[in-house]
Amino acid sequence: MSTDQLILALESSCDETAGAILRNGREVLAEFVASQVDLHRLYGGVVPEVACRAHMECLLPGVDKLFRDTGIKPAELSAVAVTHRPGLIGALLVGVTAAKALALAWDKPLIGVDHIEGHIAAAALAVPELTPPYIALVVSGGHTNLYLVREGSPGREEMECLASTLDDAAGEAFDKAAKLLGLGFPGGPRMEKAALGGNPVAQPWLNSCLPPDGQNFSFSGLKTAVLYLARGRAGRKGELKLDASGVRDAAASFQHSVVHALVSRTMDQARRTGVKWLALGGGVAANQCLRETLAREAAEAGLQTAIPPLRLCTDNAVMVAARASRLYQAGVRDSLSLETFAR
Ligand code: KG4
Ligand code: ZN
Q1: 255 CA to centre of ligand 1 in angstroms
Q2: Widest CA span of the chain, in angstroms?
Q3: pLDDT tens per residue, range 162-205
Q4: For residues 49 and 336, is the Cβ–Cβ distance under 8 A?
Q5: 322 and 282 part of one domain
Q6: In total, how many domains does the chain have?
């Protein structure tokens, strides 16, 4: 019997159905990510009911394929892990119910994983040298948080939330601005592409995501600025008032402002806490401008960065397995009454 630690992890918190098998917390033996982008594009955003149905259709066939691809038998698993918070409640329930059924049928321990801790675990998986204490910036469609991560008891780091958004999440702002600029769904990558040819200082938006509290983030004012520029005072009902070059400038100015806020707040907290490492995670961490700006400013300040590759930034199950691996090592086990939480 092998002494390897083998974790099967499931992720269904939003619009990606994902599964992975990870060996000894490091080695990805197999994974799948079934994107629902084409389904949700019809509605211009994620529709929870549509997401749930797609999770139900894709999850177990995906798990079967993981076993087929690796030749691993369920009996060899150490544990079954699943994202149980935060996310769309119905979507989370699909994954959690499946994980409970599999853990029960195979007589394996169940481990519930916090999605945000998963995004941070992706950075640690990509850069194993990452050591607490460090500042972690988690930026996704649902969250924009800065954490101070400290070593706690073995495998259980302490996370203190230092800053968050006062309104929309950064990814949500990208998605909404893209819609207003007629770029469609999913917004983040399309905004990034449009911004490539644009002038980042065409609009005077640079400091608009930095509320006067000197600590948190705010993206709703910038969103309104994009709305008025793109659609005029008629708001959402207005026709697009920009030509292609105007859209590019708006996308570039928007991205410049969001990235400036994220990086400057992160650097402020790094200076304040005196950490040596910065970690980045979440779907918005796939943004090249954010990655490069953070890496550059960190290097200038003598800090090291843990920035995961793109496929580990957007939602995936490898990060869930990586977090579960640490929890498993620390002796954490959940019961079959594991609950789901939207927040
Ligand atoms: O982490 P994630 O996959 O799902 C959540 O946990 O929310 O993040 C998805 C978010 C979306 O809002 C998407 O527009 C954004 O990440 N995103 C990006 C990029 N790729 C994805 N935002 C900016 N630039 C990108 N390249
Ligand atoms: Zn996520």
Answers
A1: 13
A2: 69
A3: 999 999 999 999 999 999 999 998 899 999 999 999 999 999 99
A4: no
A5: no
A6: 2
